[in-house]
């Protein structure tokens, strides 16, 4: 219900976006085309493009959202989807959004090529916005994705990483796209640099909170709710905020991670141990801190009629836990 209310003002644009995405990524090769169709038919809430459209409404005032904003929203979703295809290959996930992943349905080779193709398509459409500053801002995100994946791979099962290092990695993997898209949307509205930067900070901290909540849900939710296997972060040695906080309290959990869950039931045992600690609550508290920072970042938009929607959006990110 909250989701529907938050995005009510951009609902029509999101419906058009779903149609446009399939047209935009249409590939000449039938296998790539089938992979793209498979990806976008799986749906998803389209949170990232919705944020782009809400920022557009907030920064345009009484003006109608421009076609360039709508195109940026579509580009944002294509970039996000491309990153998921590569993530699923790296993490060897069998399902995503409740359906088989591209590498599972087709092959790893097709999945890698499909991800590359989507990144290439997004870059082409980005260039056609004819706004160099927006191109610079959004294109940096693709570099950040690669940086985040490399960092994650290098610190697998590493108990010594700090919360700051975890936050930095989360920025590269998740928050960078949301932050850059918010700023890009404000740029297309031609507002001053101060407002652009505030929109960037709003997106950054919203994105960090979003990732922390995702990391909590990976532990607390069922595979059916997640649309992907639960506990996959833990299994792959990706030590997230709730795990890092729990490690401070549980020596037994430390031992299981040192042994990289060598026994069949070790993951379930680790999740049970984690739930006996303050790890989940401390992670939630950290997410709430980022939400408060996000809200503080856009105080200058307080007199805008879209401002309450941006606050509700922040609340929606936290409410995914319930």
From TrEMBL:
State the Gene Ontology BP annotations.
isoprenoid biosynthetic process; quinone biosynthetic process
Q: Name one GO molecular function term.
A: metal ion binding
- UniProt xrefs under InterPro entries: Isoprenoid_synthase_dom_sf, Polyprenyl_synt, Polyprenyl_synt_CS
Has the keyword Ion transport been applied to this entry? no
**Pfam families according to UniProt:** polyprenyl_synt
Please give the cofactor(s) recorded in the UniProt entry for this protein: Mg(2+)
Entry keyword set = Isoprene biosynthesis, Magnesium, Metal-binding, Plastid, Transferase
What CDD domains does the record tag this protein with?
Trans_IPPS_HT
What protein family is recorded? Belongs to the FPP/GGPP synthase family.
Q: What is this protein called?
A: Prenyl transferase
Q: Can you name the source organism?
A: Balbiania investiens
Name the gene that codes for it: preA
